[in-house]
Specification:
The complex is a heterodimer of chains A (483) and B (260). By secondary structure, chain A is an alpha+beta fold. Chain A folds into 3 domains: 248 residues, Rossmann fold; 104 residues, Nucleic acid-binding proteins (OB fold (Dihydrolipoamide Acetyltransferase, E2P), Beta Barrel), CATH 2.40.50.140; 105 residues, Nucleic acid-binding proteins (OB fold (Dihydrolipoamide Acetyltransferase, E2P)), CATH 2.40.50. Chain A contains 8 helices and 32 strands. In chain A, a hairpin with a 2-residue loop joins strand 23 and strand 24. Chain A is globular. Chain B has a domain of 178 residues: MetI-like (MetI-like fold), CATH 1.10.3720. Chain B has a two-stranded antiparallel sheet. The chains are: A alpha+beta (483), B mainly alpha (260).
């Protein structure tokens, strides 16, 4: 279905709200006829991106193209796209029929004649749709969403699912080139959501137009899309087919956000050999530096439970819990102090010792986005360095205002509950469980992200304080490059 | 002796007393004055009132003034309320429009008169309408501002998304969706204007008498019978306009309760 024409192209788009960057240098191409899902947690910029395509928001910088035309400065009513809004936004003063007819009544179509304008150019003569044409189109749209007899009903008398269908019909009746959907199923209950997912997929297949779908529900994205765009903090993390995003996540964030996963910190010993959870495993990856710290991701369904004395068991562990989940058991295994989440269809006793097996192919190894916290700053005074607005005692005797680079290991950053107790404060923006410890990202007020390895789970969105012991701060002076 | 229990019913007694004293009694008095002449039921008061063409002229003029005032209030009030709802400081600015209402309306009208005289404006029907509009404009702006600022931004975006230019968005979405505000604005301006007194007398040097003024005059002159008949006419008018307004708004907004 998809050919190689890009219907939407977003080039270097940045969007700031009151100096806060919501979308950062976004580049995205969407092919004609594709079902693309923008997926990410709330506040990742996915809705803002959609609104920039629709024209409700103007990018702070960068350009948006639809069908090769730069539409960055074109208002929404002149763009060839239609939107299905999160809360439907059906006009309460109009009935179902009139809601759907709204766009058609405003539409101008060529009437086959040609007119010569004052400037000598030839224009197509335009006319409005006739009443019959509108009625025909609206009735067809109503039929498509299975609401044939609802035309003269009041929109407020409809159920959530019915309103949703009207909203979809209202957008599709205009025959847009692109249909934008902003979390359209968010307000529906689970069963209705599943049904609507299938209906939307069928409509997409039948109509062959481009769908751009925004959701924070990873399952929805995996079910429906041709392409998933995973976003986080205004940046694209990965673009790929659902299978690729699930099987080969680009980084620990994507792995953690899409589906359940075990994420371990490990070391790449040599090509095809990785060490994590205190054991060495065979893998299929190469090209890493020797002893490079990496993240290992294993999907819970890729680990198999074996008998403890089975010779092919790669590791042994003790069952900590075993819960029946309908089509599988969810087992938590403790191995060498690391927790491992496993989905398998064998029932285990709590406390039982079992073996585990993972195919080398299912060990996903990825570069760490950062291995140490590094901040470029300057000395406050002898023995005191400034970090993110706070003053930290250190072992350096460099004079005041010397530009320096500060390095702090993840495990050496101390987090405290009360922001007041820390030298500097910050907000927890992310927490990932890594088998035996948590890795948190704490964003300070000067917008630096501290990576912290800690035994405690810190809740996303909480304000915390940060301290760094004096002897854990490594300082190297930055020598200005002379040319 | 029966014990006095504090049931829920007890709390309604002051209200019932108030209703009896200030609503039911005056209404009964009006009916008595209108229908009973010399101890007998008699329609001579009605004949007196409806038989005099001058009385009818006052009634028509009052309705005309009411309609014109309401239209002017709507024409001035709607754009004002719309702009205010678009502004961040709108809530504060609304206060400026409401502030004159804190001044006693007689004082306000006297002050308006003085201004007109100082400007050398001939007092007459023009100044009466100007004074009415000035007095009742806040009554129009307030409900309109409340409804217009209550319209969710997504409706406006949806209309734009479906191809409506900003002007079309205004005429096809904003205006119909603020119908409740328009209706309550009209109710709150039209009904008081047809019944006010004093404004017309003061702002026309007593050359124009509206319905409210003539009722007051009749009672001043001791013509309680005719005055009561006029009060009944007034009541019927108010009930009638309320009925019509509700009918119109009921058709448009079946599922929304009217504001204020």
């Amino acid at each position: 279905m998809s050919n190689n024409v890009n219907i939407i192209e977003i080039k270097n788009v940045v969007k700031d709200y009151d100096g806060k960057t919501v979308v950062e240098n976004l580049n995205l191409k969407i092919k004609k006829g594709e079902f693309v899902t923008l997926l990410g947690p709330s506040g990742c910029g996915k809705t803002t991106t959609l609104r920039m395509i629709a024209g409700f928001e103007k990018p702070t910088s960068g350009q948006v193209f639809i069908d090769g035309v730069d539409v960055t400065d074109i208002p929404p009513h002149l763009r060839p796209v239609n939107t299905v809004f999160q809360k439907y936004a059906l006009f309460p003063h109009l009935n179902v029929f009139k809601n759907i007819a709204f766009g058609l009544q405003l539409k101008m179509i060529p009437d086959g004649t040609e007119k010569v304008g004052k400037d000598g150019k030839v224009y197509e003569g335009l006319r409005r749709l006739t009443k019959q044409e509108i009625e025909e189109k609206v009735n067809r749209a109503l039929k498509m969403v299975d609401l044939e007899d609802y035309g003269y009903r009041d929109v407020t008398s409809l159920s959530g699912g019915q309103q949703q269908r009207v909203a979809i019909a209202r957008a599709l009746v205009n025959e847009p080139e692109v249909l934008l959907l902003d979390e359209p199923l968010g307000a529906l209950d689970l069963k209705m959501r599943k049904d609507m997912q299938i209906e939307l997929m069928n409509m997409h297949k039948k109509l062959g137009i481009t769908f751009v779908y925004v959701t924070h529900d990873q399952e929805e994205a995996l079910t429906m899309s041709d392409t998933i765009v995973v976003m986080r903090k205004g940046e694209i993390q990965q673009i790929g087919t659902p299978k690729k995003v699930y099987d080969e996540p680009a980084n620990a964030f994507v792995a953690d956000f899409i589906g359940e996963s075990n994420i371990f910190s490990g070391v790449m010993l040599e090509d095809y050999k990785v060490m994590f959870a205190s054991q060495t495993f065979e893998c299929v990856d190469k090209g890493f530096k020797q002893n490079e710290p990496i993240d290992v991701i294993i999907r819970p369904e890729d680990i198999y439970i074996l008998d403890a004395d089975n010779p092919s068991a790669m590791f042994k562990g003790v069952v900590d819990s075993c819960v029946f989940k309908g089509d599988h058991y969810q087992i938590i295994l403790i191995t060498e102090g690391n927790e491992m989440l496993i989905h398998d269809n064998v029932e285990c006793e709590i406390g039982q010792e079992v073996g585990g097996y993972v195919k080398p192919f299912d060990l996903h190894i990825m570069h760490k986005s950062r291995i140490i916290n590094e901040i470029e700053t300057q000395m406050w005074d002898k023995g005191i360095v400034e970090i993110c607005g706070g003053r930290f005692p250190c072992d350096s005797e460099l004079p005041e205002n010397t530009p320096v680079k500060v390095s702090v290991e993840f495990k050496d950053v101390e987090v405290c509950d009360d922001e007041e107790d820390g030298e500097i404060g910050g907000e927890v923006v992310n927490t990932i469980y890594k088998g035996s410890y948590y890795q948190c990202v704490i964003r300070t007020d000067s917008n630096y992200d501290f990576f912290v390895d800690t035994q405690d789970e810190w809740l996303k969105g909480d304000r915390v304080g940060i301290n760094i012991p004096k002897d854990k701060i490594k300082i190297t002076p930055i020598v200005a490059e002379e040319e | 002796m029966k014990k006095l229990t504090l049931s829920r019913k007890v709390f309604s007694y002051p209200y019932i007393l108030f209703m009896l004293l200030f609503v039911v009694t005056p209404l009964v008095l009006i009916l008595v004055n209108a229908f009973i002449v010399d101890g007998k039921i008699d329609f001579s008061n009605f004949v007196d009132y409806f038989g005099n063409p001058a009385n009818m002229n006052v009634l028509t003029l009052s309705i005309e003034v009411g309609v014109i005032t309401t239209l002017l209030c709507l024409l001035i009030g709607y754009p004002t309320a719309y702009l205010l709802s678009k502004m961040n400081a709108g809530k504060l600015l609304v206060l400026i429009f409401i502030m004159p209402m804190w001044v006693n309306f007689l004082l306000r009208t006297l002050a308006t008169k003085t201004i007109f005289e100082a400007l050398g404006v001939q007092l007459g029907i023009g100044t009466v309408i100007a004074g009415m509009v000035y007095n009742y404009l806040p009554m129009m702006i307030l409900p309109l501002h409340t409804t217009i600022s209550g319209i969710d931004k997504s409706y406006i975006e949806a209309a734009g998304d479906l191809g409506a230019s900003p002007l079309r968005v205004f005429t096809r979405v904003v205006v119909p969706m603020s119908m409740t505000g328009i209706i309550s604005g009209i109710t709150m301006v039209f009904i008081p204007t047809i019944s006010t007194f004093a404004i017309s007398q003061l702002l026309s040097n007593s050359s124009i008498y509206l319905f409210g003024d003539s009722i007051q005059l009749k009672f001043d002159q001791g013509m309680y019978g005719v005055g009561s008949v006029m009060s009944i006419v007034m009541l019927v008018l108010v009930l009638l306009s309320n009925f019509i307004i509700n009918k119109v708004s009921g058709r448009d907004n079946q599922n929304r309760s009217t504001l204020l």
